[in-house]
Amino acid sequence: MDKIRIRGGRPLKGDIPISGAKNAALPLMAAALLTDQPLTLTRLPDLADIATMGTLLAGHGVEIERVRSEGGQGRVTLTAKQITDTRAPYDVVRKMRASVLVLGPLLARTGTAEVSLPGGCAIGTRPVDLHITGLEALGAKIELKDGYMHARAPNGLVGAHIVFSKVSVGATENLLMAASLARGETVLANAAREPEVADLATCLVAMGAEIDGIGTSTLTIRGRDRLNGTQHAIVPDRIETGTYAMAAAATGGSVHLLGADAQALTAVIDALGPAGVTFTATNRGLKVERANGLHGIDVMTEPYPGFPTDLQAQVMALMTVAEGASLITETIFENRFMHVPELLRMGASITVHGASALVRGVDHLTGAQVMATDLRASVSLVLAGLAASGETTLNRVYHLDRGYEALEQKLAACGADIERVRE
Ligand code: UD1
Questions:
Q1: Which of 121, 327, 355, 412 is catalytic?
Q2: What is the value of pTM for the model shown?
């Protein structure tokens, strides 16, 4: 298994191109199942999760033509002329939870779908009850058997008024796609407002669906009998943007994040200002700099437009070297502090009380051998390694490859001493 070796202590300086958002790309790829015409997505990042979604869709009979190019500028054309198989097998779903996003489109297009339950996940139990009850409200019959969701809607789905009991990105996306091919009007209340949800809705509109309230917590969808193909550019990755912003801040550097969308990162920019990090929106993206001291701040994760849970591990790594204390509270996922023991091994001072972590800033971290069990936790250890003195070796690099395109290249181009060690 590959490792990443970092010799820390160098301020990051330079330009970093921001890739298309993984979490927008995955539901957009699943949306190809809704039409027999080609759907072309541009700014497609080159990531393991994108390849996994490709494998899953190919299994359903989708033809895939992919052009890879550097810097998140890839493109894919997906054509689901015919759905040849409606089963999403355990082997793929267990690797990537976002596989569950094929449930709504398969069911809406063909009237049937069998999707494996995702099962355990490193960052908590992550149930799919909201996906199931939402689709049932549209008239589907869903049975749980042999570890699979067996969904049927032989007479098609029918619009309904759905109030989510909890904000869920994935459930909102599954229901948006299903409702686009349902008869009549669907209202999704307490819907997720994440920019990736809005990106999907925008693409569905280009495919012929009628959707009001994009970007708000109430989405009204008037379904169509058929949807058409289109071409759509995936939004820039706000989590990648926030990650590199924090890497610059952790090393006392200055980076220009090309193509970044500052607006999608408002909560992060507002939080990090008082910590001593300066953000300047430019016509090419977002400049981030930390010239002076770094100060402790309190952060609580929330659904968008709040501070994203996908940047919680990174902000914690940043706070380990800030002056003073910082309280970091995770409200979205239980068990999302697996980076804490690894950060402790690098000399951080962190105490976890339930869903909160009290971080007392230390003068410096020291390099160590570390490993992590999920994507964002892994990248937080890269940030810690960049800020630490000495050498850090990160094991289980495959987590990073799921969500960060060309991570070592992007950081090395800004002066980081980082390399992948292939084994
Ligand atoms: C998506 C993102 C993930 C991010 C998360 C929260 C993708 C591919 N992944 O994941 O990176 O961390 O949003 O911003 O976009 N829940 C239920 N029942 C359900 C569904 C969810 O209780 O049926 C709970 C979850 O356990 C969690 C919370 O709702 O506590 C939010 O989860 P959700 O927004 O659904 O996350 P994902 O869509 O899986």
A1: 121
A2: 0.97
Q: Is the CB of 227 under 6 A from ligand 1?
A: no
Kindly report which listed range (9-23, 68-82, 128-142, 266-280) carries the lowest average pLDDT score: 68-82
- Looking at residue 23, what DSSP letter applies? H
| Angle, CA of 230, 198 and 172, to the nearest 5° | 105
Whole-number Å distance, alpha carbon 169 to ligand 1 midpoint, is 6
Pocket test for ligand 1, best of 22, 135, 164, 166 (most atoms within 8 A of CB): 166
Strands 218-222 and 254-258, by their bridges, are: unpaired
pLDDT band at 121 (very low <50, low <70, confident <90, very high): low
Side chain identity, residue 371: M
Nearest to 199 by CA among 50, 35, 21: 21
Nearest to 59 by CA among 16, 17, 4, 116: 116
Mean pLDDT of the chain: 96
What count of other Cβ atoms lies within 10 Å of the Cβ of residue 315?
Answer: 28
pLDDT for 286: 98
Could you say which DSSP state residue 236 is in? Answer: B
CA distance linking residue 265 with residue 243, whole number of Å: 11
